[in-house]
Amino acid sequence: MGSSTTSSGNGIIVNNKKISASSARAHTRKTNQNSSFQLSPGMLRKLIGLFFVGILSYAYQAIQPPPPKLCGSPGGPPITAPRIKLRDGRHLAYKELGVPKESAKYKIVFIHGFDSCRHDNFAKFLSPDLVQELGVYVVSFDKPGYGESDPHPKRTVKCIALDIEELADQLGLGSKFYVVGFSMGGQAVWSVLKYIPHRLAGAALIAPVANYWWTGFPSNISKQAYDLQLLNDQWAVSVAHHAPWLVYWWNSQKWFPSSSAIAHNPAVFSTKDMELVMKPHWQSRMEYAAYIRQQGVQESLNRDMILGFGKWEFSPLDLANPFPNNEGSVHLWHGDDDQLVPVLPQRYIVQQLPWIHYHEMPGDGHLLHEAEGVADTILKELLLQKK
């Protein structure tokens, strides 16, 4: 049965019991308060904490790169290239051009640049007649994580030099060989000059990338060169140097423009570069563009940036002449209209290292070796110049 409520005089009768009006009002207020949801300070702190945990969890997931898709693994890209197995178990894919190495007079190891692979070999731009006349053999290889070479998450600046030495030994290139590197590959030549100079017959750096944080650079030189980059490239190299753990997120996010090289931004091409990228070999390059990154960008592009602009164990400006008795030579080539890699640091480096033969190309951009006849000139200077 239900309860009955009636009013009587100064009170209210509830179930035949009379209570005062003030007691009834207090009872009503308490009932209304209990019926509304109230957040205690402790519960509010917990909710705020959960919110920030959620934000941090999302941010952590955003900066974590996916695992690489290893060549030959289930679901991974197929193995199509010849490869050597290195002493640490990794594989290095390579490509041979020129005359057979058994009959070659000159043997060259070529190091490709950023977002490239073993197919991007400067030997493609050499005159076939010159290659045959001189007896030149060139081997290029996919750097770790690129193409079909296994990633190397613990890679250091020194590792590329040791990989090259082991590649040369397994292919039987002899006690001495030449190295040529372009762009980020040119930067890697500094490591070769540091760690295996005794294996070199000569070296050439073509438009090598400079690290603005190398010790020995005067602050005005490094800052001026840094400021010559596009703003998005300034941000990209700064992230690689100061926050390498953030590189994957930075290069994959859509809020801010990332590296021009990754985005293939034509704004970094000089007038001559633009003419070169319209040639057929650039169109055919698009056929294997996906191949370059097929194992994932973290262990290829991002790792290159982290190493290239991170803290080095040495500075190229402190290197000693690897050929004190003029038994070989080192050459550095750079276009003075290079919009991607400013020429300014190279001018300072060669002042400090006068044993380097410096060739500055007026009006040329970053792709200077692809212009007609330039690769031949680079080759002849490296191999035939009087020591």
Automatic annotation (TrEMBL):
Domain AB hydrolase-1 residue range list: 108-371
InterPro entries: AB_hydrolase_1, AB_hydrolase_fold
Protein name: AB hydrolase-1 domain-containing protein
Gene transcribed to yield this protein: LOC115709284
